[in-house]
Amino acid sequence: MMRAVFVFIFIALLAFGAVWLSDYPGDVRLTWGGYQVETSIIVVAALALVFAVIVALIYRFWVWLKHGPGRIGEVFSARRREKGLEALSSGMVAIAAGDAGEARRQAVEAEKNLSGEPMTLLLAAQAAELNEDDRAARVYYDRMLARADTEFLGLRGLISRAHKEGDLIKARKYAERAEELRPGTAWVLKELYELALKLRDWEAADRILARMSKGKAAKGEAVKRAKAVISYERALECREAGKREEALAFATTAHELDPTFVPAAALDVALTASLSSARKLQKLIDESWKRAPHRDLAEAIRKTVPGEQPPDWFRRASQTVAPNNPDHVETHMMLAKAAFESRDWGPAREHLMKAGGDNPSTSILRMLAALEEKANADAIAAREWIIKSATAPQDPLWICNACGRQEETWNVHCPACDSFDSFTWRTADRGAHSTDEVEAEIVQEIAAGS
Ligand SMILES: [Zn+2]
């Protein structure tokens, strides 16, 4: 509105000026070199006006070029950006699809159009990974480390590179730097935890696990079990270093966290025997046998009395251990073995039969065979048991849930596949079980037996 008024006033003034000029006519004579121009004042005024308008327009155009957004330079850079972003997304798709050549082409295209953008570095690094170009991948990750906005991401790449190279120490160094950068990030904590386990740094593993279980990275039973296993390993370390009191404290923690964890129960019993009162030891034995009777625990209980003769052990086992869980297979097995060693054939046979039930295992049948030979010198009966044993169910063993490796003793890491805490006490012919299933079965067994 105001603008229209101004235009109107301007045109009116112009008309008024023109009329006024025509009322007072005059001449303008210009002489320059050999030229002579002669004209009226109105023409000069009109020329002056046209000149002013042209200058104003040129000035406006220059200002528009210089200051306004989206001008010529930026039109070009927007095009490049678009091309770069297209290359980025195509490159990411190529990586997801495992197309190494295409990924590399798009990475080059993105780098050309979006030079210096953090995402182009990541794409280039990933493309290099896909092309198995280790040197290039490391160069890109190192460039990512140099920038604050990509440092964390670069560390992640370098950690996985270090894993590929099998350099756990280097992986841990990068993970620690990532932890400093963004403390408490779930994947970093998990990485540090797994590295501590692999490096057998139990103290660090314990510390990180405590931090993880505060956050959402880990929860419940799995944490309890892991903490039990780590405490057990720390107990072993302390015992090795001659710190027996500390060893006992860790062993007790491990045993309490997971009463079904046989190695911890056995170690707890062994250390309590040498450090605590007889009364305390007996209480521990009672509870342990009630909750989780096991071959290895029986062995640990036996060793609490050094140099004990087989008949003495048989008597002690019958009177102080067995009553805690009298019908359990492991109880019968413990008593059968003790009686067998004492050459007390009657109870040995009785407990072997009870342990075997309707479907005795290989080792029970072999013990029965040995018993026939030793007790009665009955080679024919012995042979019958041996033949039967060939098709009998296998005895339980410590079996790795990850790779199926069978071991006589529990191991914290599988000697074959290096999995952490993968051994469960079970029979091989039951096929592959998940850890949870096996644990559930063990719990059921214990519940049924107690
Ligand atoms: Zn394994």
Describe the structure.
It contains 21 helices and five strands. By secondary structure, the chain is mainly α. The protein binds zinc ion (ZN).
Relevant terms:
two-stranded antiparallel sheet, 21 helices, mainly alpha, binds zinc ion, 71% helix, three-stranded antiparallel β-sheet, rod-shaped
User: Radius of gyration over alpha carbons?
Assistant: 43 Å
How many β-strand runs?
A: 5
| Quaternary form | single chain
Bound molecules: zinc ion
Q: Flag low-confidence runs.
A: 430-435
- The first-to-last residue Cα distance is 97 Å
| Shape type | rod-shaped
Largest sheet: 3 strands, antiparallel
Run of helices and strands: HEEHHHHHHHHHHHHHHHHHHHEEEH
Strand content: under 5%
- What helical percentage do the residues reach? over 70%
Number of helices: 21
Q: Which structural class do you get from the secondary structure elements?
A: mainly alpha
